[in-house]
Amino acid sequence: MKKVIFLLAMLSLASISCREKNSGKPKIAVVISTLNNPWFVVLAESAAENARKLGYEAKIFDSQNNPATESDNFENLISSGFDAVLFNPTDADGSIANVLKAKAAGIPVFCMDREINADNAATSQILSDNYSGCVEIGVTFVKALKEKGNYAEIIGLVGDNNTWARSGGFHSVVDKFPNLKMVAQQSGDFDRNKAMEVLETIMQAHPDIDAVFCGNDAMAMGAYQALQSAGKADKVKVFGFDGASDVVEKIKEKKIVATGMQYPKVMAKTAAQYADEYFKGKRDFPQRVPVEVELVTMANAVNYQ
Questions:
Q1: From CA 251, how far away is CA 249, in angstroms rounded?
Q2: pLDDT tens digit string along 12-44?
Q3: Within a 13 Å sphere around the CA of 158, how many CA atoms are in the beta-carbon half?
Q4: Which end of the chain is less congested by CB atoms within 10 angstroms, N or C?
Q5: Taking the CA atoms of the chain, what radius of gyration do you get in angstroms?
Q6: Would strands 57-62 and 259-261 be described as parallel, antiparallel, or unpaired?
């Protein structure tokens, strides 16, 4: 038994020695929920770029909105000797195990944009203030519909806290107006094509909707495309969230009413800076760091790129 313990200890020391030997320049893994969305591409590339500017190697891993792929990514980065993870989770609960694996391997994880439902796993979580941002969307929604009408809501990934924070902020305002009736609420998985298909199906059952609130801008563009195909783009008001450039352009053209401007570059830069501070010895990080969201409408869209 003593021999077994001794061998395990020696293997552990060898592993640590190997990591130290291979870490002349620390390596940062950027693990992103999906690169099939331009907004997340900006988040990923900004995180990697900031890490490189700070003098570290960086590699982007695409989880393809698949928890199993995300788990594979973590196994890969741990075995490949990465020293920190800038992480955009696929699932608030399901991703906890991956973060804990990294933590057990001595690798700090800094969540960006999406959170996990744990306070003892990630080193820090840098998150948009989704709820407050969608409160503002809700106020704009009520005014645009003059407090009455039928609407549909296309929510994002069911397992993502952002989905429910955005929906909750929106409903905290809209539900106070009894003449605003939600006739359908379905998931579009934060995906443009799925949102288009979802709204097409909704309109078959509810052809008289006056508006659609989408949990992100990719889905807002999908919804707009469905409305265009149905000849209703000028009759149904579309609201999104993210601040994606194509939606901002549609707002300027009066084709989409509003969105919430998130700042992926701010979150990515903060996460990279935290990793840098960790490498230099800091260990006391705030568990959650809110990043403000700004309302974008026709009145101020010209100010945003």
A1: 5
A2: 444 444 444 344 789 999 999 999 988 999 999
A3: 3
A4: N
A5: 22
A6: unpaired
Predicted structure pTM score: 0.81
Q: Once rounded to an integer, what is the mean pLDDT over residues 118-142? A: 97
Strand, coil or helix: 48: helix
Return the number of other C-beta atoms located less than 10 Å from residue 5's C-beta.
9
Strands 124-128 and 259-261: unpaired
Q: Is the pLDDT of residue 8 over 50?
A: no
d(CA 13, CA 111): 29
* Cβ proximity of 148 and 115 under 8 Å: no
pLDDT at 24: 77
Residues 239, 130, 128, 144, Cα dihedral to 10°: 30
Residues 6+ apart with CB under 8 A from 236: 209, 210, 211, 212, 227
CA–CA dist 111, 89 (Å, integer): 7
> What is the number of other CB atoms lying within 10 angstroms of the CB of residue 34?
22
Q: Which two tokens stand for residue 131?
A: 């709820």
- Write the CA distances from 88 to 31, 85, 178, integer angstroms: 6, 9, 37
Residues in contact with 55: Cβ distance below 8 Å, sequence separation at least 6, in sequence order:
25
**DSSP H helical segments within 175-288, as ranges?**
192-205, 217-229, 245-252, 264-279
| Average pLDDT, integer, range 220-239 | 97
* Single-letter amino acid code for the residue at 205: A
